[in-house]
Amino acid sequence: MAEMYYDNDADLSILQDRPIGVIGYGSQGHAHALNLKDSGLDVSVGLYEGSRSWSKAEEDGLSVGLAADVSRDSDVIMVLIPDHTQAEVYRESILPNLLPGKTLMFAHGFNIHYGTIQPPDSIDVSMVAPKAPGHRMREVFTRGSGVPGLLAIEQNVTGRAREIGLAYARGIGCTRAGVLDTTFKEETETDLFGEQSVLCGGVTALIKAAFETLVEAGYQPESAYFECMHELKLIVDLLYQGGMEYMRYSVSDTAEYGDYSRGPVVVDEHVKENMKKVLAAVQDGSFAREWIAENDEGRPRFNRLRKENAEHPIESVGKELRGMMSFLKDAD
Description:
Layout: E1 4-5, E2 20-23, H1 27-38, E3 43-47, H2 53-59, E4 63-66, H3 67-73, E5 76-79, H4 83-94, E6 103-106, H5 110-113, E7 124-130, H6 134-142, E8 149-155, H7 161-171, E9 179-181, H8 184-199, H9 201-216, H10 221-230, H11 232-250, H12 253-266, H13 269-283, H14 286-296, H15 300-310, H16 313-322
Parallel strand pairs: 2-3, 2-5, 3-4, 5-6, 6-7, 8-9
Antiparallel strand pairs: 1-9, 7-8
């Protein structure tokens, strides 16, 4: 069994006298910084000059400065900006301030694993990756709970990288739920594969294909939307709560039989073979090189794909139907 860590395994006092710099104040950045602050730790937020998040972080009661200044003044530096911007910010604002013995942290292993960031060998390098979006992570923390997380140690120069990582994980609430021991390689490759084959790419492609199949067969787009998109939350919530067995227990016997007998017809061995190709591109670095090049070239394909998908009929139908659902207004 994999190693799991909880509150009793983490000593928060290790970080009491060590200033922490959180670089970025987006979804993950705001959650990390506020959770650390609420845990009684000395945390500052590092941003670029003119950042729209600057005033927001100050309003939230946090100390804010330029990324370079916060990196200089921090013993622990957590990088929470988008993957494609990390290498440049690292070179310009963080690397010049990485004195021996400091700790450089990440919440995703992309840039370390694929070598776009290569830290000096005089510092600790670790990762604490919460397994939830930042807003969810913050919400759960304020209710006294936490979301699961991953811990990985890439460099342990001081001999205390794991202790510091666990203390950080406790500071943001992850040890309340459990922290899994992993590596930068495993986290990066499984995360990218999961996003592409299931959580984002697989799910949205499946929804669109099902919607199109029903509409092309003459069914109302609204009916197709309800069946293929709207009701997905019901199933996901059941899976989240109790796994596949609980979901199957909760639906009708007809639905359960359709699950067993028709699911493998839709997602057959050809799909699994395609998933293996997706995984291979993650493992050999070709996806990473493609994504880095896409950003270097101004994101032409990304922007085209974003526009095409935003214009899919399911989006216009869904927007109209969701506008009638008053219970969704709080989420907006």
